[in-house]
Amino acid sequence: MPALIEDARAKVNLTLRVIGRRVDGYHDLESVVAFADCADRLTLTPGEELTLTTSGPMAEACGETADNLVLKAARLLGERVPGLKVGSFALDKVLPVAAGIGGGSADAAAALRLLARLNDLALDDERLRDVALQTGADVPVCLASHACDMTGVGETLMPLNLPKMPCVMVNPRIPVATKDVFAELGLRPGDLLVGATDVMLQAPGWPEQGGSLDEWVEALAASSNDLEAPAVRIQPVIGTVIAALNATDGAWLARMSGSGATCFAIYENTADAQRAAEKLRREHPIWWVHSGVLS
């Protein structure tokens, strides 16, 4: 059987509101999630043994192969699907690691899609969805890789129809651990974030289907990323990245994605985004910069 291939698209949190911390230690969130046109690539060659090899410019940052979420997801699925067909995974890693864009989660989700194809499983199979959530909070949203409003700990997804959003994504090549950012947020089990009751009582009013880019940017600007301030305290360079994005011509909205350190800006058109990316690459040659489209 020929090799199967899936792209693992970068996830971008256009907004991220923290409602509070549950008694089990997990955080309840509300986030508008979009997906970028930059991606890792995962290949599955069917075979008897489950293995993983990594290559690409970010491969060294992936850490120990045995700890990779691709293998974790595959093993968890194997526990639920008797006789699961597996094989050799090959990951071409181009997205930054520990960057707030769900790189590892997107890779795990791509692995689940590949295994679903190999084993004739539907993507809405409860076992797939269960494994996705057990693998990581961002894996369910990456499984579909479709723009949505994500709530709970990542398990509740409401599809959204976003317009194409020209963007620039920037990572200063400094990893930020999600657990450290949540620790800096400082919520104890059972705590609500200050003002979170207002968020729960007044659900975000996102534009209807067919809403324009202007309408979406206006709505997004009225929200925020609650993890941005604690992340900046841990890595002040995040504030430098946001300031650099805001200083580019045509930037409509700039903020951090996820728990950082990747930040993004939305532009009126792709030409403005490309010029901004070129400026940032000249001024900050060590930064990872991507110009593209969110959807």
Q: What this model shows, in words?
A:
The protein has 295 residues and is α+β, with helices and mostly antiparallel strands. The chain folds into 2 domains: 4-159, Ribosomal Protein S5, domain 2 (2-Layer Sandwich); 165-294, GHMP kinase, C-terminal domain (Alpha-Beta Plaits, 2-Layer Sandwich), CATH 3.30.70. 33% of the residues lie in helices and 28% in strands. It has helices at 69-80, 103-118, 126-135, 139-144, 178-185, 196-201, 213-221, 228-234, 237-246, 270-283, and strands spanning 4-13, 17-21, 27-47, 51-55, 86-92, 148-152, 156-159, 165-171, 251-256, 263-267, 288-294. The strands form 2 sheets. Strands 1, 2, 3, 4, 5, 6 and 7 form a 7-stranded mixed β-sheet that branches. A 4-stranded antiparallel β-sheet has the order 9-10-8-11, with helices on both faces. Helix 1 (69-80) packs antiparallel against helix 3. It starts with a strand and ends with a strand.
Flag low-confidence runs: none
CATH topology (level 3) name of the largest domain:
Ribosomal Protein S5, domain 2
What is the domain total for the residues?
A: 2
N- and C-termini, Cα separation: 33 Å
The secondary structure category is alpha+beta
* CATH architecture classification of the largest domain: 2-Layer Sandwich
Relative helix content = 25-40%
Order of helices and strands: EEEEHEHHHEEEHHHHHEEHE
| Oligomeric category | single chain
Percent in strands: 25-35%
β-strand number = 11
How many helical stretches? 10
Biggest beta sheet attributes: 7 strands, mixed
Q: Assign an overall shape.
A: globular
CATH class category label of the largest domain: Alpha Beta
